Amino acid sequence: MKSTQRLSLRVLTPEGAILEREDLISISVPLVDGGSIGIRSGHAPLIGETMRGFVNFRTKIDQDKIELFPGVLEIRQNLVTILTSGIVSGLPELTEETETNEFDRLMATLARQLNLDNETKINREDR
Question: Which of 42, 56, 108, 118 could form a disulfide with 28 if both were Cys (CB 3.0 to 4.6 A apart)?
Fold first, then answer.
């Protein structure tokens, strides 16, 4: 039995959302191990580390791609979220050290956000 649900893709940076697409049939994301993962509707939940490269996505009638810096991928209930430091397009080639610094900045932002969420939850529970 084929799933009739479609995928949604969100690409987030510490500054905010840079891409939101819905009604997608498939998404392909480069992973840090050098391979890529193909995602279709009904994919199992997953969290993984992405590498710099192209994220390809397609609808019934067209396909597109976006080149991103390394980041974190989450797949949950047909929602694919990529947390990254930004889009590569048009930028000069970066060294591995620069990419590592960008990844560290991204992870620090994520940690601060999670900590703020936990503090907010704790404050609500104290009331």
Answer: 56
